[in-house]
Write a structure and sequence with these properties.
By secondary structure, this protein is an alpha/beta fold. Helix content is 40%, strand content 11%. The chain is built from 13 helices and eight strands. A six-stranded mixed beta sheet has the order 4-3-2-1-5-6, with helices on both faces. Strands 7-8 form a two-stranded antiparallel ribbon. Helix 6 packs parallel to helix 11 and helix 7 runs parallel beside helix 8. The chain starts with 23 loop residues before the first helix and ends with a strand. Keywords: DNA-binding. Pfam families: DDE_1, HTH_Tnp_Tc5. This is HTH CENPB-type domain-containing protein. One of its GO terms (cellular component) is nucleus.
Length: 421
Amino acid sequence: MASQQSTASQRRERSQGSATTLSRDQEEEVVVWINQLRKDGIPVSATMLRLKACQVAEDAGIRGFHATWSWRRRFLKRHQLSTRARTRQGQVTSAEAEGILLAFCKRVLQRIIAHNVAMLYNADQTAVFFEYIPRTTISKRGEKTVWVRCAGKEKDRMTAMLLGDWEGNKAAPFVVLKAQSSRISARQVENEALRHGFGKRSWKAVQKATQGRNLVVYGNPKGWWNEKLSLKFLAYHFGHRSASDRPVMLLWDDMSAHWTQAVLDYAASKAVLHEKVPPKFTFCCQPADVAWNKPFKDRLRARWFQHLRNDMATMQRVTAPKKHDVLQWLNEAWASLSVSTIVNGFVKCGLLTRHIPADAPVESVVADAALIAALERSRALDQRTTSEDDDVGDGENDSGAVDADANTGDTVVPTGWHAAA
């Protein structure tokens, strides 16, 4: 090699994968096995990989091979594999989810046309914890006990109902805290009527914590959503409407408290159409789950980390945040989400713009031309040019959205269809 000018600088030349204990064909057998399992959604752990590699080596008559962690690390690198954290679990395949999403989009858009809907909303309740302890930590290798300091409040939480619309507007979060019921029934009725379920002393603290913040706080013994809160929620956000107003549509998941007859009757009296997000498919059909909740939780987690740092810097011990602290974090986290983040939830669910694969025929468009034309006539959509300043679909926005379909990986081509004002 050194005798040739073109290779004189190369000290050695060896193709990747040579000089390995398992041959290329044997390693390829392991790779095929992994790909087949992942195609069926079966998890492949490091232990499973070790056992499979040892089995292949034994079948080939190779002795003394143990598939150590160093071999596994190099094997994964050679074949462009990596250990990934699961982002979704269940029995539903991606293909099934895509079919459900397409049917859901079609049903929603058809109802928008049929009822001349003026606005599309999505509401979703999510837990807000007092502590966000990470599942993993950096520590010395080989330690059998990995201790993490905390205040013991990692399971304490409050519930927040978040509401946004397809124009990117965010409504005041509806928050539910745990509040003890009074043993005197008449006093409990008074608490619910005048103080959102809190006693006199607790109500003063709640009022102080929410002063100057765009929050609505209620309390009940479990700190979870129920039928009464669904009615309060609708009354707060839609109580100014009447049955003769132009209808609006609210996407809600299948929680039973959202679909009682009392809730449906009240919504109908305010011209609010309910649309149920397909059960078990909220991860792809609900804008909040698709685009809002992750950046929202990331901001809450960042505030808890800052609280942890402040504690260690001042008192060398960890204290749990107070309720008013968590309410402040919640308010700031929700307020900091950009308009594009909220809009992207509807976009990625196919409820606002059309998702067109770059090489797909026209027939594969989710909302066909006739449906789009009908939407335009009903003024549910208006056509305007998308400028470079619009950050809908921008890969750098808060939602983490990229210009690709979340379910198929296909490129999303902006079409200029936006929600009408």
